[in-house]
Amino acid sequence: MPPPVSTTVGSNGRGPTAADEAYARLREDIVRGRLMPNQRLVEVDLAVTLGVGRTAVRTVLARLEQEGLVVHEPNRGARVRMVTEAEALEITQARGALEALAAREAAEKATPAEVAFMRETLAQMSACLKAGDLLAYSDGNARMHAKIIESSRHSTATRLIAGLKAQMVRFQYRTVLVPGRSARSLVEHTRIVDAIEAADPDAAEAAMRYHLSHVADTLREMTSAHAQHRASPPHLVHF
């Protein structure tokens, strides 16, 4: 059995409870894809893994259900929620509005060090693209968006975006694998960073909206293609 989760109290007299830390650990496992969509979440197993009691596990699962990461079914228990392709499209559209706001705020508030980080990330993304390492490119993309959101210093947008992105783990790498999409994505990110560095909030907002509208278009095309594939009759394969 793993050691119990630490409940050390901070110097301010308050600190995370065991349930808080268990929540953070389980949420991270879902967001990072360590727990797969539709995977069952058994209370007894989670209590052992997280080092907390079953009451704390129920509290954790209830919080994750509120975030849309877990679904609870009567007489069947909890499981990791499966986000459909249609939902992924809606989430991306909602992100477009929120991240456009974040980009606008970042253009007004980003520090030189934050802009330098964005420039360095662009260079890394470009190198990954040239090397054909699309998964590493996608990781750079995630770092870029995280830095822009952080630079916005808009706590409400940051919280809402985090909740939306947490549900998108199954689709994290899909769009960059579409032929030609990564090259266009790099150009779009460059325009966003250019606008932020120029302290042009209108241009930054427009560039982010343009970028995420294209991501949504790609998801829409993928969804349509998958639907057509499922509807088509099976093909004979000759070996």
UniProtKB/TrEMBL annotation:
GO terms for molecular function: DNA binding; DNA-binding transcription factor activity. Keywords: DNA-binding, Transcription, Transcription regulation. CDD domains: WHTH_GntR (cd07377). Pfam families: FCD, GntR. PROSITE patterns: HTH_GNTR. InterPro entries: GntR_C, TF_FadR/GntR_C, Tscrpt_reg_HTH_GntR, WH-like_DNA-bd_sf, WH_DNA-bd_sf. This is GntR family transcriptional regulator.
